[in-house]
Amino acid sequence: MVMTMTLAFTRPTMGKEKFTLVKFTTEDGGTIQGAFFKAGSAKAIVFAHGAVFDKESWYFLAGKFQQQNVASLAIDFRGYGKSKAGSTNKKMYDIIGAVIYLQQQGFTEINIIGGSMGGAAVLAAWSFIKAPVSKVVLLAPAGGKPIKSTSTDKLFVVSKDEGLYDRVQDIYAGSAEPKQIKVFPGSAHAQHMFKAGYADELVALILAFIGQG
């Protein structure tokens, strides 16, 4: 896979956190833009957004992780922002490319967080990701196969009354240990859960899950 990294400009977020806009190419020739939140440890996260969101929807959480010395890369999927598709429309290549980008930056502990469409892209990419993934958080993934890896710790999150509840439960049931699932009340879907009354609990859950160990 041929990759290119283009550093753009550094911008502050709402707090003291800063990110750099970067670009990389994918295996099928796509060009993906992401916001890279730098930190000093060897741990990093790929953020994969849902269909009605973009990379900026993850900035608040990327900033919180940056404060904990965890770097992250929030990507715009092909067709979003300035990201462009290659020879296919398969978003799994964007996930694979993001993991490779972080590897090339020297990160040795890679984690992935995806919501809805982003979660489905993570599951589609899973068997093609060559780097070991330490932990994965999937917020109501919109389809995909269970994760059979026993070396990756898995956290599934879903609302009890949302339309994908049964599907998420099936993916969770078929995935290998170690794994856990958190079911919240209501019907908020994936990243919309960050707007619910339990948002602080959800954020704390994700921070603790990625941060532990």
What does this entry look like structurally?
The chain is α/β, with parallel strands linked by helices. It has one domain: Alpha/Beta hydrolase fold, catalytic domain (Rossmann fold). Strands 1-2-3-5-4-6-7-8-9 form a 9-stranded mixed sheet, sandwiched between helices. Helix 2 crosses helix 3. The two termini are 31 Å apart. About 4% of the residues have low confidence.
Looking at this protein, list some descriptive labels.
single chain; 213 residues; alpha/beta; Rossmann fold; 9-stranded mixed β-sheet; 9 strands; 25% helix; globular
Query: What oligomerization state is this entry in?
Result: single chain
The second-level CATH architecture is 3-Layer(aba) Sandwich
The computed structural class is: alpha/beta
Gross geometry: globular
CATH superfamily descriptor: Alpha/Beta hydrolase fold, catalytic domain
Major sheet summary line:
9 strands, mixed
Q: Are there runs of 5+ residues with pLDDT below 50, and where?
A: 6-14
CATH class: Alpha Beta
Distinct helical segment count: 5
The CATH topology is what?
Rossmann fold
Average pLDDT, rounded to a whole number, is 93
- Give the strand order of the largest sheet, numbering strands 1, 2, ... along the chain: 1-2-3-5-4-6-7-8-9
Describe what is shown at a glance:
The protein has helices at 59-67, 92-104, 117-125, 165-174, 199-211, and strands at residues 10-12, 18-25, 31-37, 43-48, 71-75, 109-115, 133-139, 153-159, 179-184. The protein is of the alpha/beta class.
